[in-house]
Amino acid sequence: MLPDVIARARALFDDLTPLRTDCGLVCGGACCRPLEGENTGMLLFPGEEAYYAALPDYRLTATEAGTLLTCSGQCERADRPLSCRLFPLLPLLREDGVRVATDARAKAVCPLARQSKAALLPEFVSAVREAGRILAQDDAQRVFLLRLTAQQDELKALQRQFRRDAHV
Ligand code: SF4
Ligand code: SF4
């Protein structure tokens, strides 16, 4: 059973994806391909772990960033975790509220993440913002969003540093 706040956020994406067409046709479903030998996976939001612990074909790994979900590369649409539904975007929590950002980890795999958000369906971008607003009303989710925001800022700063170093 999912916490109500997660169920509401997930439901926003029951019929909504980044493009009107199947974006997996562009990349061969790159974000769903498991990478052998690598500790990849989708970050679960608080309360999602118990849902997957009860399902076969999923593996949970505790990391410093949170619990990662590894799948077989195929899933029932209803079972998609929130991170997969939001991908390649994320709702970040700033002092002035929820901001929609491209996931810094997505650029390596997702062609959509390398474009501006304007290339995505506006309804999808709005739903990511709304999911962030719903989550931010819950204490545990708000703490998680703040941690996620700090991790993304750190990762983006590192990426900028690598880009600068590469040009020296
Ligand atoms: S990697 Fe990006 S473009 Fe490809 S299926 Fe995933 S979200 Fe769509
Ligand atoms: S859970 Fe589903 S949507 Fe998410 S990576 Fe696995 S196959 Fe793709």
According to DSSP, the number of beta strands is: 5
The number of helices is 6
Strand order of the largest sheet: 1-3-2
Task: Report on the biggest sheet.
Answer: 3 strands, antiparallel
Ligands (ions, cofactors included): iron/sulfur cluster
Cα radius of gyration in angstroms: 16 Å
Shape: globular
> What distance separates the N and C termini?
52 Å
Query: In sequence order, what are the helices and strands, one letter per element?
Result: HHEHEEHEEHH
The portion of residues assigned to helices is 25-40%
Q: Tally the structural domains.
A: 1
What does this structure look like?
With 168 residues, the protein is of the alpha+beta class. It has one domain. It contains six helices and five strands. The protein has helices at residues 4-11, 24-27, 49-53, 82-86, 122-136, 139-166, and strands at residues 42-43, 59-63, 66-70, 89-94, 97-102. The chain has a three-stranded antiparallel beta sheet. Helix 1 runs antiparallel to helix 5 (122-136). The chain is globular and about 50 Å long. It starts with a helix and ends with a helix. It binds iron/sulfur cluster (2 copies). The site of one iron/sulfur cluster has 9 residues, from loops.
Give the secondary structure arrangement, pairings included.
Elements: H1 4-11, H2 24-27, E1 42-43, H3 49-53, E2 59-63, E3 66-70, H4 82-86, E4 89-94, E5 97-102, H5 122-136, H6 139-166
Antiparallel strand pairs: 1-3, 2-3, 4-5
Helix pairs in contact: 1-5
The protein binds iron/sulfur cluster (2 copies).
The site of one iron/sulfur cluster (SF4) has 9 residues, from loops.
